[in-house]
Specification:
It is built from one helix and 27 strands. By secondary structure, the chain is mainly beta. A four-stranded antiparallel β-sheet has the order 4-5-6-7, with no helix packed on it. A four-stranded antiparallel β-sheet has the order 8-9-10-11, with no helix packed on it. It has a four-stranded antiparallel β-sheet with strand order 12-13-14-15, with no helix packed on it. Strand 12 and strand 13 form a beta hairpin. The longest helix is centred in the N-terminal third of the chain and has 25 residues. The protein is globular, with a radius of gyration of 22 Å. The termini are far apart.
Amino acid sequence: MNSRCTPLLLAALLLAGSAAQASNNYLVQSPVLGHVFNSETGTLHRIDGIPGASSIGDALALDFPIARAAISPSQDYAIVADGDGQSWVVNLGVSPPTAVLLEGALAGAEGAMISPTGARAALFAPSSGAIQLLHDLAGVPATGETLSLPAGVGAWTAFAISDRGVVLAAAAQANAGALYASDAGGDWSRIGALTSGSDLAFFAGSNDALVADRGANEVLMIRDVVARRQTSVIASAADDLHSPLGVGATSDGRYVAVAVPGGVASIPLYGGVPRYTECACAPTGLLPLAGGSAFQLTNDLNSPLRVVEVGADSRSLFVPALAAADLTR
């Protein structure tokens, strides 16, 4: 080979390798807005893109159909149940995703709760009065301590866990309800009354919590549910808030989002009044998506998914529905 051609050939190979690496990095680092569970097919789908420019991808490749799913707000893992009721942790940060069976998981678990950053999680089985803490979700997932819920307080309607491992639970009785919080040792304390708790959420990195009291048409904020327990009403019927069904906070702690019939109320915590963003939909909940300020409102993949981005200028968005052929894939 001509020696003068060798440097040119090496340079071409290096450039080609760099281009391929750049292409691969782009694919790996392409933005993911979130994940959505398709209850009709028992599959998880990735929501590719960013708020306002996103699409639903094909079903993720798993070896079993999913009966129930809870997705981490950080979008890096999901806690799912299979058709036999076994609990698994799915690593969403790799392609294809991998699933790890949770050995010794709570029998009869009816759902899972995940903290605002995904640092903590737990399984819950209200019918048997048990909560099981989970550990090392981003590494080698394992089951931990099982807590017994307070007995004789009514039916459990909502749960939440903080990034520090504190659990908040709402119980309902015939005419009223109550809130209970566990401390680090698993001991429960009654921390307040409510009419009908529909949803609970913690702020990222703290034990400050939010309560959607649908019966009272109120959203409560509790400062440190374990120690201080200072409760305030941050929105009510006086603010035209009615039937709150889901609640959450932006990751920077500046805004509270509340799902209500027909849209979302955005509540600024540092001055200002609640503002309402219509979604032309019937929200089924309020699920955090990537970025810290976007929330998923609906989960029917036969129709466009409704998403809201909460902030100084909240806006309602949608993700196009899957084509009929894609729903079965």
